[in-house]
Amino acid sequence: LWEGKSVAENAAQREEKDRFQTLGDLRKQWTESGVETSRATVYRCRIPQVKPLLNQKQRQKRLTWATEKQHWTVAQWSKREMPKCLKSSVKYPQSVMVWDAMSAAGVGPLCFIKGRVNAASYQEILEHFMLPSAAKLYGDEDFIFQHDLAPAHSAKTTGKWFIDHGIIVLNWPANSPDLNPIENLWDIVKRKLRDARPNTLGELKAAIEASWASITPQQCHRLIASMPRRIEAVISAKGFPTKY
């Protein structure tokens, strides 16, 4: 099970204005300017990828991690539940933080969070949202839980919580969003939010819920099935960031 967190933004600034334009609008502007291009090219230019900075120690840990997982099958990766905390690059008049989780079987319920997340509040989220999510996605089957190295995640009390609940946690290399398929899932959610253009907190929450509910198990499975390729990409890049 894989984890995630949040959409949090301020009022739109002028330099962010074209982020709310549709791909069709942008493509039309380029065409009128004499530039012929595809919809896919417009999207790539509109939303640049941001690669994390990795020091030598982090690159080595990523490489070691990938080498250890090199022979994992898609079936093995499908045993993971991934929660995530999303930070969107889209600006809205309102802000909200969201916890969510996915697996190869689909997505779990959303949790809208108020305030900062510490170890105690994170464990509350795990208790009231992660466990029901795992029950929905896996039933009585065993699973492996994945989250990043945020302080609330790596706290000793959080580690004890997992031990007490008999849940295996996947070791995770720092600064590795390219190894986390839920990042790609939230790219889909963010694109739909741009089309929805929410203005109020209620509209933003409703748009997030609608977008998240539209994610299909097939989309989730395709992302999980990409894990062997991600592993190979990290090994080929000797631990440096990859295209994912």
Structure described in brief:
The chain has 244 residues and is an alpha/beta fold.
Record field, number of beta strands = 7
| Total count of helical runs of at least 4 residues | 11
How are helices and strands ordered from N to C?
Answer: EHHHHEEEEHEHHEHHHH
The parts where pLDDT drops under 50 for at least 5 residues are 8-23, 33-37, 39-48, 85-91
Radius of gyration: 19 Å
Report the mean per-residue pLDDT as an integer: 81
- The gross shape turns out to be globular
Instruction: Give the structural class.
Output: alpha/beta
For the largest beta-sheet, the strand count, sense and barrel status come to: 7 strands, mixed
Q: Share of helix among residues? A: 40-55%
Distance between the termini: 19 Å
Strand content: 5-15%
